[in-house]
Write a structure and sequence with these properties.
Elements: H1 4-10, E1 13-17, H2 24-35, E2 38-41, H3 42-55, H4 63-69, E3 75-77, E4 86-88, E5 91-92, H5 100-110, H6 113-129, E6 134-138, H7 141-145, E7 151-156, H8 159-169, H9 175-191, E8 204-207, H10 213-230
Parallel strand pairs: 1-6, 1-7, 2-6, 7-8
Antiparallel strand pairs: 3-4, 4-5
């Protein structure tokens, strides 16, 4: 049984950022599960609000319409890394938010400042409530959402490696088209005015191009354990 001192010292907040296809989600979930931390996929929250808008007739090409509707859906994220959940207005959204339609629209919705303000506040409250510590993954966690995180990690990989991984996840997908879509998503996420995808100055960069998923997980676990020891 953990003592109070052990629990306090192990309650680290870990921010893992990076573009799509770098292994963020798989790595973050595995690291959180291995170290007994909570887990939050912030991208799923942006997907959830995008899905809600598409379902409710909001014109997702209109920043004004998106801004007006941003506070309406109630998004709840479960933080168990072995079975993360997400609901919107009480409805399980874990499957629907992964459709191609949502994927193609999420950058536009998440670029609207009102959306980012609401979701960022939600993310901060979840992290603050994670008494045992949490791994939070996304694109602006170390720079905007949790700038005081105990450990910041930025995962990268070549566009080719990322496209190959994404194509492997989606049956029958075209590798060249997947690569092109990733590059376009990078440009949209890095170029937006509000909380762009960026590496924090004090983040540890891990290039996953030549690494297996297990190697990436082991690398991140080591970094977290070093941070815990130093705390």
């Amino acid at each position: 049984m953990s003592t109070a001192v052990e629990t306090a010292s192990s309650a680290v907040i870990v921010a893992i950022d990076g573009p799509s296809g770098t292994g963020k989600s798989s790595t973050s979930k595995a690291v959180a599960a291995k170290l007994g931390l909570s887990y939050l996929d912030t991208g799923a929250q942006y997907r959830a609000i995008t899905w809600w808008m598409l379902n409710n007739g909001i014109d997702v090409t209109s920043p004004a319409e998106i801004a007006t509707a941003a506070a309406k859906p109630v998004i709840i994220s479960g933080t168990d890394p072995t079975g993360p959940t997400i609901t919107v207005d009480g409805e399980d959204a874990s499957g629907p938010i992964r459709t191609q339609e949502v994927t193609s629209k999420v950058s536009a919705v998440s670029a609207v400042p009102e959306v980012r303000t609401i979701i960022t506040e939600l993310q901060r409250s979840i992290a603050a409530d994670a008494e045992g510590g949490i791994v939070v993954e996304g694109r602006d966690i170390g720079t905007t959402v949790l700038p005081d995180a105990d450990l910041k990690i930025f995962l990268t990989a070549s566009p080719e490696a990322r496209a190959a991984r994404r194509s492997g996840e989606v049956k029958g997908s075209d590798l060249a088209a997947t690569r092109e879509a990733l590059i376009l998503r990078d440009a949209a996420d890095s170029g937006r005015k509000t909380s762009p995808l960026a590496k924090a100055d004090d983040a540890v960069e891990v290039d996953t191009t030549e690494l297996t998923l297990q190697q990436v997980i082991e690398c991140v676990v080591t970094l977290v354990e070093e941070k815990r020891t130093a705390a």
